[in-house]
Write a structure and sequence with these properties.
By secondary structure, this protein is mainly alpha-helical. It has one domain (2-18, 40-88). It has helices at 2-23, 38-62, 70-88, and strands at residues 28-29, 32-33. Strand 1 and strand 2 (32-33) form a beta hairpin. It is elongated and about 45 Å long. It starts with a helix and ends in a 5-residue tail after the last helix. The mean pLDDT is 85.
Length: 93
């Protein structure tokens, strides 16, 4: 039961992050000016879509009953955020 509550909180956090990234894709995101680098807008858009899809998958997996399926949601979300972090810090030529 505790795992379900923590996973619900995690999925809500993913949805909130996805919503924030979607609404900041054309303005300022943290310390980055998206208007100066349109590549960041694309990165924010696709990361937001990926987090939304992972949230939906997480909701489906949460109610399937197997607690180990929740690891899929955790792994995918961690991989997405890792990829996002690496892609916004990459230097462009």
């Amino acid at each position: 039961m505790v795992i379900k509550i923590v996973m619900i909180f995690f999925i809500l956090l993913l949805l909130l992050t996805s919503w924030y990234m979607w609404h900041r894709r054309n303005g300022h995101f943290l310390i980055y000016d998206i208007g100066g680098d349109p590549r960041l807008s694309t990165i924010l858009k696709w990361t937001s879509i990926a987090l939304l899809a992972e949230s939906i998958l997480g909701i489906v997996l949460l109610f399937m009953g197997n607690k180990y399926l929740n690891l899929i949601t955790l792994f995918l979300a961690s991989l997405t955020i890792l990829t996002f972090g690496l892609s916004i810090t990459q230097k462009t030529k």
